[in-house]
Structures are given as C-alpha cells and as structure tokens.
Amino acid sequence: MMTPKPPPVFIVPGMHVGCLPDDAMKTNTLECFFDSVCLNTTAQWISTLPATSWPKPLNSSMKSRFISTTPTVILIDELMIEEWQNITNFSGYYAACSPASCTYTITKHSGILQILAVLIGSLGGLIVVLRTITPQFVKLPAL
Fold first, then answer.
1. How many domains does the chain have?
2. CA dihedral in degrees (51, 52, 54, 57; nearest 10)?
3. How would residue 58 be classed by pLDDT, with cut points 50, 70 and 90?
4. Is residue 136 part of a domain?
5. How far apart are the C-alpha atoms of 85 and 128, rounded to whole Å?
6. Tens digit of pLDDT for each residue in 16-53?
7. In a domain, 36, yes or no
8. Torsion of CA 38, 41, 46, 50, to 10 degrees
9. Any domain includes 130
C-alpha cells in the first residue's frame, strides 16, 4: 500500500511551499544560506555541479540589521539596503554649476473667453463637416 504523503527526505529550514511562488517567497527566510551543513545538503540534492562549485555560506558574524530568520518580504520591502548614507553637498553643487545668469518664463493659461471661442469654433466646424458627409451615407431607399 502506498503512503499518500511520503515523509520528506530533507527539510530546508526557512523554505516554504505555497500555491503560488509569490506566496511561498514572501514567507521564506535565508537561514539555510547561513548554515554550511544545510547549504551543502541542499546543494547535494539539487546540484549537478562538483562540490567545489557549490555556494559558500553567508557570514553570520557580519553586522546586519536583518537576522537570518527575517522573511524575504521584509528584505524586499526594505530594498535589501542595510543603511542609507545620504551625504548632501549643496555648496559643491553650486560651486560646480553656478550659472552666469538665471532666466525663467511664465506660462499664461488660456482665459475663459478663449476657451469658449475654441469650443464654439470646434462645434461649428463639426456641424459643417457632418452636414456635408451625412447625406452621402444616408440615402433613402426609392419606393
């Protein structure tokens, strides 16, 4: 008799399966990538490459604001950025890009009278075109 659900050969810590890849990806963690035993066992099961080409584990002793069990959805939401370093130097910008003169333009928007004139002109032109074209398309059948 067959077992309906055989026991797993190897469980990858932090890896989940869902109906859609997106569902599983959001709940996954990278904890297996920090463990050399887990990484080697996984590579042994899925890789056709020689053991010397297998990936090396991530360094867990490196300083990070994310821990190994942080869900990948949080890593993606944070753009996988450890720290923003915003150094703004406006004086350097103005020294390099200082213009000799500065000009600007003011765009004047159309007034209500101009808008009405354009609308009336457009409607008038449309009426003339329709009066010219319509009789050729609509011919009364001869009785």
1. 1
2. 110
3. very high
4. no
5. 65
6. 888 888 888 889 999 999 999 999 999 988 888 898 89
7. yes
8. 120
9. no
The pair of structure tokens assigned to 3 is 């077992």
Residues spanned by the domain of 33 = 21-82
**Distance from C-alpha of 46 to C-alpha of 68, rounded to nearest angstrom:** 22
How far lies 135's CA from each of 17, 44, 129, 140, in Å?
Answer: 68, 81, 11, 9
pTM: 0.53
pLDDT in tens, 66-124: 999 999 999 999 999 999 888 888 787 777 887 777 788 888 878 889 899 999 999 99
40 inside domain: yes
